[in-house]
Design goal:
single chain, acyltransferase, alpha+beta, 22 strands, Chloramphenicol Acetyltransferase, carnitine O-palmitoyltransferase
Length: about 775
């Protein structure tokens, strides 16, 4: 208990001689340094708030405006047209000299002029960023209007923006017209319905548009004028936080490590480097040193999702959950063999080195103490039903030692699991190894992750790693950003010594990680067992297939003058039709971060054009006819994707109209039917955002396999894909064993075949489509 005594700054004992006061200089020093670190962060935040608040101007521009106004006054000209004199008349201080009053009045006028200029520049930039015609222009051919627009955006964007500098200049998400949304919806479901069903749905849509729709639209427009984004808060609350089923598998998602290489086989060393890299990223995030994400190096995207990346946790409630965010925590929560630990990563105000974190992690691995009663599978509460977890939290964790330990986990910077399993591309059946690896990251043993944390990092016994993220606070690209940074810093900047350990020296006087204490009652243990049973049944039902398609990649696809994303979406449509003999409602996630607080929108990839192409190809139509239909389908898909990114999507608008109808207590048969349609094919692309961190030419073995998610529908598939370099496509396919019509491995085979068939159809020289090994980078698998 030495670390417990060190945490007490002073002790006193009452004796007959008086009070014996004993000061702990080490504890007082820790308190002092912690306070200094806290104040430094506050000063940095204030400075960044000022810089972002006056953006696109700079604080120094205020001085320039003041000097310019004073200079013009001394030339006996009045740039204020009498306003400075008016200000001087109303100054409350009469003891000043006339000249001093004139200077003060000029400074006040200059400040007001400066603020007006900032407001004008920000308004101009906001109007410029509302222009989206550039996205619909043919790739490589930019109109004169767009060229002028790009130049103006760069002029008004200022220099060296911080991460959140653009937030005040981003436009609000527009509310589409009712008639446009209804028209697009009816067009999207036409290939999925027979004539009688389509006629019935058309009648429902027409009635909705002419009656209730206009009333709901009025309320939605009113909200759009008041709120920063008319979708995001309702989307977070009703889609994520109000869901009462398990978030494990159903909501959380995962990301994988490098596919073909493990930087070190030592578990503690890998954790040491990566945990250090995570805190380096948090430091850059707090200082807003991360660059804003710019499309075409000019158009900024919203960064608000980064705010809750660290020090956040989802808190269960009986009706709805909440996401709580705390200020910078100086520790992480660690799980190993049924025990929870608190590991401080700051000592005397400094971040521990990777070698010191490795030393502390090894202490946890070497710890032989047994879990306390009921502790080992406590994490299953976060994997089961939300209502059960909320009631258990209120009953068993609202006071005493349980509350203190739970607070420690929830307030941690993030959660770490030290797993005893080994995962990688091992053995002869590498595909099966990847499948097990994906399932482990998605749900683990159902009790060895804390699924409520913003993200949990898993380090396996052989040095492999992975990440599991909670979905309500942010979407996958935000988590992928920190994951890419961590992998790159771990391997290319920090590195390891010849023995595989982290570099640097160790301060052996570091206090040991603190094991958390629990008092779990038999009634609480029963609830843990029930939650585990629910979670285990869900995990056992998940069928996963992960594979790296290396026969060709986006390099050859682009040579066919086709969008790689459109190509893969058409391959998925073809594969699903061959697998099930029909078409289905298809979800592809698109981002709306061109708008303030934007998150996602749905691209309905199954269209009239895509179904016509698939039917023609499967019906044996001539190749030239199929090629023409394919290009029409691909162009339609790209148009829908651009519409979704620029606020012209279908589903978020209909979703918000549905929410308004529920608030008003009115029923809409049209909206009820739309919102109940199952997404049997849910897809998402994970792009590599920080390409500059990786060398795909010289270090092609350092390739992440991307990430994935569970199936959205009980009888459907979840497909995540990632284009790596010019020659690789990684795919993650999920479905459920309980559905006799779905099989992840069979669907994966159909996707492979569809990719080859499409390339063969589009290749100008048929022989080229057979040269699948050309240009494929050589890699070495883990041994």
């Amino acid at each position: 208990m030495a670390e417990a005594h060190q945490a007490v700054a002073f002790q006193f004992t009452v004796t007959p001689e008086g009070i014996d006061l004993q000061l702990s200089h080490q504890a007082l020093s820790e308190i002092y340094l912690s306070g200094v670190r806290s104040w430094k962060k506050r000063i940095i935040r204030i400075k960044n708030n000022v810089i972002s608040g006056v953006y696109p101007a700079s604080p120094s521009s205020w001085l320039f405006v003041v000097i310019a106004i004073l200079a013009t006054m001394y030339t006996r000209s009045d740039p204020s047209m009498g306003l400075i004199a008016k200000i001087q008349e109303h100054l409350p201080v009469s003891q000043m000299s006339t000249q001093c009053q004139a200077v003060v009045s000029a400074v006040l006028f200059s400040t007001m002029l400066w603020l007006m200029l900032i407001f004008t520049m920000r308004l101009c930039l906001k109007q410029l960023l509302s222009y989206h015609r550039w996205m619909f222009e043919q790739h490589g051919k930019m109109s004169t209007t767009t060229k002028i627009w790009v130049a103006l955006v760069r002029i008004f964007s200022g220099r060296k923006p911080l991460l959140y500098s653009y937030q005040g200049s981003l436009p609000n998400l527009p509310v589409p017209a009712i008639k446009d949304t209804v028209k697009r919806y009816l067009e999207s479901v036409r290939p999925l319905m027979i004539d009688a069903e389509y006629t019935r749905m058309t009648n429902l849509a027409t009635e909705f548009e002419s009656n209730l729709g206009n009333r709901l639209q009025w309320y939605l427009k009113l909200k759009s004028l008041w709120a920063s984004n008319y979708v995001s808060d309702w989307w977070e609350e009703y889609v994520y936080l109000r869901g009462r089923g398990p978030i494990m598998v159903n909501s959380n998602y995962y990301g994988m490590d490098f596919l073909y290489v493990t930087p070190t086989p030592i578990q503690a060393a890998r954790a040491g480097n990566c945990i250090h890299a995570f805190f380096l990223y948090r430091r850059k995030l707090n200082k807003e040193e991360l660059k804003p994400w710019l499309l075409r190096s000019a158009v900024p995207c919203c960064s608000y999702q980064f705010e809750r990346m660290f020090d956040s946790c989802r808190i269960p409630g009986t009706l709805t959950d909440t996401v709580q965010h705390w200020q910078d925590s100086d520790y992480i929560a660690v799980y190993h063999r049924g025990r929870y630990f608190r590991l401080r990563v700051y000592q005397a105000g400094r971040l521990l080195s990777p070698r010191e974190i490795e030393f502390q992690i090894q202490r946890i691995l070497d710890d032989t103490t047994s879990p306390s009663q009921g502790e080992a599978k406590l994490g299953a509460l976060t994997a089961g039903d939300r209502i059960s977890w909320a009631k258990a939290r209120a009953k068993f964790f609202s006071s005493g030692v349980n509350k203190r330990s739970l607070d420690c986990i929830e307030r941690a910077a993030f959660f770490v699991t030290l797993d005893d399993e080994e995962h990688s591309m091992m053995g002869e059946d590498s595909a099966e190894c990847l499948d097990r690896y994906a399932k482990s990251l998605l749900h683990g043993k159902c009790y060895d992750r804390w699924f409520d944390k913003s993200f949990s990092v898993v380090y396996y016994k052989n040095g492999k790693s992975g990440i599991n993220a909670e979905h309500s606070w942010a979407d996958a690209p935000v988590v992928a950003h920190v994951w890419e940074y961590t992998l790159a810093v771990d391997s290319f900047q920090l590195g390891y010594n010849e023995e595989g350990h982290c570099k640097g020296e160790v301060d052996s006087s570091l206090p040991r990680p603190q094991k958390l204490s629990w008092e779990i009652t038999p009634e609480c243990e029963e609830q843990i067992s029930q939650s585990l049973a629910v979670a285990q049944a869900l995990a056992d039902d998940v069928d996963f297939h992960v594979f790296s398609f290396r026969d060709f990649g986006k390099g050859k696809i682009k040579k066919c003058r086709v969008s790689p994303d459109g190509f893969l979406q058409m391959a998925l449509q073809l594969a699903y039709y061959r697998n099930r003999g029909t078409f289905c409602l298809t979800y592809e996630a698109s981002m709306t971060r061109l708008f303030r607080e934007g998150r996602t929108e749905t691209v309905r990839s199954c269209t009239n054009e895509s179904s016509a192409f698939v039917q023609a190809l499967e019906g044996g139509e001539p190749a030239d006819v199929c090629r023409r239909l394919f290009r029409a389908a691909s162009e339609k898909h790209q148009h829908l994707y651009r519409m979704a990114m620029t606020g012209g999507g279908i589903d978020r608008h209909l979703f918000c109209l549905y929410v308004v109808s529920k608030y008003l207590g009115v029923d809409s048969p049209f909206l009820n039917e739309v919102l109940s349609e199952p997404w049997r094919l849910s897809t998402s692309q994970t792009p590599v955002q920080q390409v500059e961190l990786f060398d795909m030419v010289n270090h092609s073995e350092y390739i992440s396999c991307g990430g994935g998610f569970g199936p959205v529908a009980d009888d459907g598939y979840g497909v995540s894909y990632m284009f790596l370099g010019e020659n690789i496509i990684n795919l993650h396919i999920s479905c459920k064993h309980s559905c006799p019509e779905t099989d992840a491995h069979k669907f994966g085979d159909q996707i492979r075949k569809a990719l080859h068939d499409l390339l063969k159809l589009l290749s100008p020289n048929p022989k080229e489509s057979n040269k699948t090994d050309e240009g494929r980078p050589e890699v070495k698998k883990d041994k």
